[in-house]
Amino acid sequence: MNSLKRLSALLLAILLLALPLAGCSESKSNTEGDAAVSGNPTAVPGTEGEGDAEPDELTATQIVKARYADTDLGGYEYKVLGPAADAHFYSQVGEGINEIYAEELNGEIINDAIFQRNDLAEVTLNFKITPIFSNDVGGIRTQLHNEVLAASTEYDAVLNRMDYMGTNMQNGDLLNIKSIETIDTSDFWWDKNIVDSFTLFGSKLYWISGDINIFDDFAVEVIFFNKQLCADNQLAYPYSMVLEGTWTIDRFYEYCKTVEKDLNGDGQLRPKDDVVGHCEENDHVKHWIYAMGERSIVVGEDGSLNIRVQEERQINAIDKLYSCMVEGQMTYTANSTEFKADHVLFLGTMLGPIGGLRDMEHEFGVVPMPKLDEQQESYGEYVSNGWCTAYAIPMTNGDPARTGMILDAICGFSNETLRVALYDVLFGAKFVRDEESVKMLDIIFVSKSYDWAVDFTWGGSYQTLYNGIYENKQNNFVSSTAKTMKLLKKGIEKLVESVERLNY
Questions:
Q1: Which of 431, 424, 415 is nearest to 116 (CA)?
Q2: Are 317 and 372 in contact (CB under 8 A)?
Q3: CA 166, 170, 175, 177: dihedral to nearest 10 degrees?
Q4: Domain contains 440
Q5: What is the tens place of the pLDDT at every residue in 7-38?
Q6: CA angle, 159 as apex, 155 and 164 as ends, to 5°?
Q7: Which of 13, 71, 164, 172 has the greatest number of CB atoms lying within 10 Å of its CB?
């Protein structure tokens, strides 16, 4: 890298680090986990008293630099297999974006943050990142498996869709992240929700995400609301309800019914021709299960997997959803086109396609999905395992400790580069148009909910159970789960057995 690029990278770092961090909600029920958003500086042993910062105020950059002050990888070429810029869903967020590598500074904030992040890591540990890109994310899954079978060590790490990682895990292709001593999964730059959700038996974790990624955030289901329709109907923006913990499906339903208008007078409501309250493009019920604090499968205290579909609270949530979505005709099938045309008050979708709203004439805001009731302690935001990306280490990796150091450093340096660009610049200025929505994003990101079911290859039955009550307009969830329970348990048993067999 020439000196001009180094100077440009340094200037970019100064700019990014000077940006204010996104504000965090003061709501007590939603501050748990805020460290994942705002950073959670901790002391590094042996650095107490150094510099002007107090021991408990060290930044991620300071921690990583201190941790690897005496590390020299001798110019090692670190190879990463992952989706190319035009693969996965990258094209929906920006031209030329990928999460691994940026060849040079080009003025695009995400690209330049990745460039700066990588430069910091490469200089600190003395290594070089070499991406191995593929236009076929399904092919990455197959390539990884085939190369492990062939005892190949062509690359050090792999980035791919998280649901595809599940297949590679079952195939025995991945190393246990928890067994790699150079990765401390409790460091605040790693996504705590992923670590907690996907650690089995208290000691087995086969993929990981954090500040090193952006698609663990783009994959979050949110609610966009049309401010013009709120104004037309004298409805307050829902921000205060979110902060007070009173943003529930009942309040959501009230808003939806208030705005409904049969504009063409044909006696029927259609998003294309009339004004309706709520639209989603697909998976109408599945997303809401997580918003209501439920999951298909939860990890028990002993690390085992437990199916929750027959629990009373989840059945109550299903009954409420059926009452509002189907019997109350709250929910319609449509996409952002009708939302941008002021025909829909609430659009439920992932955060990733937010770029498609940039040309919307009227203002919009973003809020978490509503809770089941006010007694629910915190919000829950479904994360698509198909959109979310994660890192894994091939079982044939010849030096997992070295790879762990590299991933740790890149993720740590991402906290004040890529994460700042994503939260404070991209969302705070480029897309989201008001300060309140940025605060909502803080709540959304610490409320991410992951699940061992639904999006993985073994989880199709759960999607059918949930979405069926809307698609078939029948609330036969209890009887359907009773009939399907044997199949569900068999799938989980097979998954658990495959993980138990893994001795690494």
A1: 415
A2: yes
A3: 50
A4: no
A5: 344 444 434 444 333 333 333 333 333 333 33
A6: 115
A7: 164
